[in-house]
Amino acid sequence: MLWWVLIILICILLALSSFFSAAEMAFVSVDRIRIRGEAIKNNKKAILLEKLLEKPEEVINSITICNNIVNVTASVIGGVISANFFGSIGIGLITALMTFSVIVFGEALPKAFGVNNYKFAIKIANYLYLIRKIFYPIAKILYSFSKIVLKLVKKDEEKSRVDEEEIKIMLDIGVKNGTIEKDEKKLIEEIFDFNDTKVKEICIPPEKMVCVSENETVESFLKKFLRTGYSRFPVYGKNKDDIIGMVHVKDAIYASSIDKNMKIRQIARNIIKVDPSMNADDILREMQRRKTHMAVIKSIDGRILGLVTMEDLIEEIFGDIKDEHDLG
Prior knowledge:
Elements: H1 2-28, H2 32-40, H3 44-53, H4 56-86, H5 88-114, H6 118-123, H7 125-158, H8 164-177, H9 182-196, E1 212-213, H10 218-228, E2 232-236, E3 243-248, H11 249-256, E4 272-274, H12 280-290, E5 294-298, E6 304-309, H13 310-318, H14 324-327
Parallel strand pairs: 1-2, 4-5
Antiparallel strand pairs: 2-3, 5-6
């Protein structure tokens, strides 16, 4: 009787593995515009999902821990059953069977179901919140431990690293030998310079920032978009030193199809606020991590010192990038 209970438990664990895989794929591939549209309609689960998407790594790390726990537990139980019934030969058979089951039923099929499935992502928002609340503290501890281990390993690696000056010397030699093109050398040097560039050196100053009020309607905003050609705008509250978020023209177009008089604050997204002393490469990494294209530079006393976009940062490396607005 105990064996049947263990077999049923394995099936339950595989079902949980399937759920976690589908949930992870639905979460990472979710269409944020659709979620914004559902949130505008006051869908509470969509609003919760948007909050979870502000720090996606917390949810993803928590789901990964859950998935690993159920997969390992299922494999261990399977090994116990096979060892008791078939001896050492059975362990090989159950390993192959469990591997197949986890790959097909715990990974491939559920991920195919979850990809771009925004309706499923909304339905499971409460479960994702619960998973993050319970398991993220564990994930954070494991992440901190792994960072300590990596630091210990890197101490030995740093001895064999080539510094920036040595690379520049090798570049000069490469150009003289003809193995490196001058354009390639210039690009690498631009990357080194980019690492040392402060964000305040490349930001758009406050007087040139085109902002929109949180109380502006989407209809009025879209007219401003047509005049400027920009696709993203910082949103301010009381005054232009009170930047509360950013708005994307795609969100406004979608919102206008529902209500042209909807206020910009209802569709505003979060915006990164950074210190003027931060390096440009750190800002770029933060933008990539947060999946955003805009940040405002804010002083210690709360004044807005400027605006920086991902395009500004990339142009700092590759030079001027012509877009449709520039051509106009």
